[in-house]
Amino acid sequence: MIRFSTAGESHGEALIALISGLPAGVPVDLEFVNRELWRRQQGYGRGGRMKIETDQAHVLSGVRHGKTIGSPIAIELVNRDWKNWEEKLPVAAGDPAKHQAVASPRPGHADLAGALKYNFPDARYVLERASARESAARVAAGAMAKLMLRTLGIEVLSHVIRVGRVELERAAAWEEIVAMAAKDEVVLACVDAAAEARMKEEVEEAARTGDTVNGVFEVVAHNVPAGLGAYANWDERLDGLLAWTVMSLQAVKAVEIGRGVTAAESFGSRVHDPIYYAATQASEANGRPTRFRRPTNNAGGIEGGVSNGEDVVVRGYLKPISTLRKPLESVRFDTREPTAASYERSDICVVPAAGVAAEAMVAITLAGLAAQKFGGDSLVEMKRNFDGYIEQMRTF
User: Rounded to whole angstroms, how far apart are CA atoms 193 and 185?
Assistant: First the structure.
C-alpha cells in the first residue's frame, strides 16, 4: 500500500512530505519534481508569498543513485519566509510578546472551528497548519507517485475550466492539456486563450474591489487501464476514493466525476456512454490495450467504482479564498466584540495551483491502487505483472 503524510506549518522552518510503499527501482527525476513544485506556485492572482518562496525538493531518504530503494521517502521543502517568523513562532517558549495573534477569525477559514477544537486563545496555530501552503508537500509526494505511474504509461495533468463567472465552453483535448502544462509562463492554465483572457478580467475585478474569486479545475488521468478500484466493497470504489482525496484539499467544496453534475439533470439516454468493439488491432488508440471503445466519456472513466479504460476525469469546485483585503464582519477572540476579520497576506485566485495539487492527490490515489493490483517490491516485478494484465486485456 502506498501511504503519504505531510508535516509543517505555513510559516514554520520547512514542510515535510513522507511517502512509503513505492516499489524499488523507480527512476527519480528531481528536475521533474521541482517543475511540479514550480507549477503549483504559478497563476494570475497569486499573492506575495509566491515571490518569497522558491520551492525545491530536498530528498532526505528513500532514493539513492537516482532510484527509489523501497524504503520511505522523506522530502523537505524549506520555507524561506521562516527567517521573518523565527521569533514569532519559536519551537522553544520564546518571548510571548513577539507572538503575532490572529485576533478575529476569518469567515470561511478554519480559524474559529480550529480554535474551538483545540482551545486556542487565537487562531494563529490553526492558520499555520490549515493553510494551503501545506499543499506544496502534497505536490512533492504526488510527483513521486507520478514518476511511478509513468513507468506504466499513465499520465496525470490538470487545466482550469472556470474562474468566477467565466467558463471554458468546450472540451479540452489531451494534447492541449499537455501543451498547456509544458508552458514556461502560466496565466490561468486554460487551454483556450480567449476564455483565459476573460478569466483574467474576473481576477482583475476581484483585485480592484478587495475581493477574491475562484472556480473549477479539471484533472485528467490519461491511459489508465480498466480494472483499478472495486465495486465489491464501498470503501474500495475508485470514484469514492478520488472524491475523498480531492475534497481534502484546502478550499475544495465539491468534487465531480466526469459529467456528474449535468448527468443529474439529464435522461439516461443522454448520459451513459455507448460501447462498441473494434475488431482490428490497429484501432488501439493511445496505446490502450482493450478494443472496447466509447464515443463519449460522460462517466469520467469510472463505472461501478472501477476504471473502464477511458480517461479518468475529476473536477474540483473551489470556494473563493477566505482572506479578503476588504474583510467581512467577525468577532474578537478576547473581548467577543464585533470587529473586521483578521487579514493575512493572501491570494486572489488559486485555481491553477489547486489543479496541480489535485493532480498530486489523483496520482497518489491511482498509484496506490496500481500497487495494490499489480504488486511487486521492485519496479521490475510490478512491470512484469502489469504487462501480463495488459496482455490479458488485449486477448479478452
Answer: 13
